[in-house]
Design a protein that fits this description.
Blueprint lengths: L7 E6 L8 E6 H77 L4 H24 L19 H43 L9 E4 L2 E4 L6 E4 L2 E4 L5 E3 L4 E8 L5 E8 L2 E11 L6 E2 L4 E5 L9 E8 L2 E3 L2 H4 L3
Antiparallel strand pairs: 1-2, 3-6, 4-5, 6-13, 7-12, 8-9, 8-11, 9-10, 10-12, 10-13, 13-14
Helix pairs in contact: 1-2, 1-3, 2-3
Length: about 325
């Protein structure tokens, strides 16, 4: 049997001052309790510090995630805007291409081939540009249990946005090309529409351009146009698009219509029975502008037809053939 003092421990406190020495007697049970409490305290303190450290790391990661999320939202908005602009521009391109193809169908043969080849090349070039700018699929995958915030999706989104910007630039360039081509074709069409072509009336030619025996007596005279005879009241039509510059009585020509077509072209239609257009009125090729008569200095129902280029009277015969 152990002595009673074997279960006691004495802790002595020796001060550095003149105060008396103090002592504390602890039983073994009490000492074990103190050691246990201290152990639990320090283990709990360690766990608390470790938890706080992990919490701080998680807070930093959460803040990074928030920043990444904000940047992703901004990039998504940018991509959405770029997509909308591209969609609008593609619609414009499709409309331009449709217009161009319709316009090339009525171009002269020597111009139709060149314009058509340009149209066929443009979509192919655009498709190749789109294919070259298609973003690659992401290959980044987080490691199991990893808390690392990856910026790979952000980098890919930035790359996609940059590629879409480049694509939009390419589309704008194609659009400019199409627009220039459309304007060029429109100019060609406008000039073609302004160029006299065809007969002004259905009939037969009784007098040609140039010097001729005067129908009013002996001698030669210069005939500045061609005469096309037909029954009185036969329609006279405009041989090109234009604006009525004159409609009325013009001396020896009697009832006369003069059309300004632009690009230096002007046509004159004389000796009509009556005119059906007024000054300033716009007319198109084939539109009735008067009816054949024999007014003015005339030997019978016909239309005197002249073609002027930059104020100079020229032979209408090539224009009658549509050349």
């Amino acid at each position: 049997m152990r002595p009673p003092h074997d279960n006691l421990y004495t802790v002595i406190f020796v001060p550095h001052s003149e105060r008396p020495v103090a002592s504390l007697r602890l039983r073994t049970l009490h000492l074990q309790i103190v050691v246990l409490v201290l152990t639990v305290f320090f283990v709990g303190l360690f766990m608390l510090v470790h938890h706080n450290s992990r919490l701080a790391a998680n807070m930093r990661e959460l803040e990074e995630l928030r920043e990444v999320n904000q940047e992703q939202r901004a990039l998504i908005r940018t991509l959405a805007e770029e997509t909308t602009l591209l969609r609008e521009q593609m619609i414009l391109l499709e409309e331009l291409e449709k217009q161009l193809r319709e316009m090339t169908d009525i171009l002269p043969a020597e111009l139709r081939g060149e314009a058509g080849s340009s149209l066929s090349r443009e979509p192919a070039i655009l498709a190749a540009t789109i294919a070259s700018m298609r973003p690659q699929a992401s290959t980044w995958t987080p490691a199991p249990g990893s808390n690392v915030v990856s910026l790979a999706p952000i980098a890919q989104a930035r790359d996609t946005a940059a590629r879409m910007t480049e694509l939009r630039t390419a589309v704008e360039e194609r659009q400019d090309t199409f627009e220039q081509l459309r304007q060029g074709i429109a100019a060609v069409q406008a000039e073609d529409a302004a160029r006299p072509s065809g007969w002004p009336a259905y009939g037969h030619m009784t007098s040609r351009f140039g010097y001729r025996n005067s129908p009013w007596g002996v001698g030669w005279e210069f005939h500045a146009g061609v005469d096309i005879a037909a029954r009185r009241g036969t329609p006279i039509v405009a041989t090109a698009d234009g604006v009525v510059a004159f409609s009325g009585w013009l001396g020896l020509f009697g009832n006369t219509v003069i059309l300004e077509h632009g690009y230096g072209y002007r046509t004159l239609y004389g000796h009509s029975d009556k005119n059906s257009v007024t000054v300033g009125e716009r007319v198109i090729r084939g539109q009735i502008i008067a009816y054949i008569g024999t007014t003015g200095r005339s030997t019978g129902p016909h239309v005197h037809y002249e073609v002027h280029i930059h104020g100079r009277q020229v032979n209408p015969a090539p224009f009658l053939r549509g050349q």
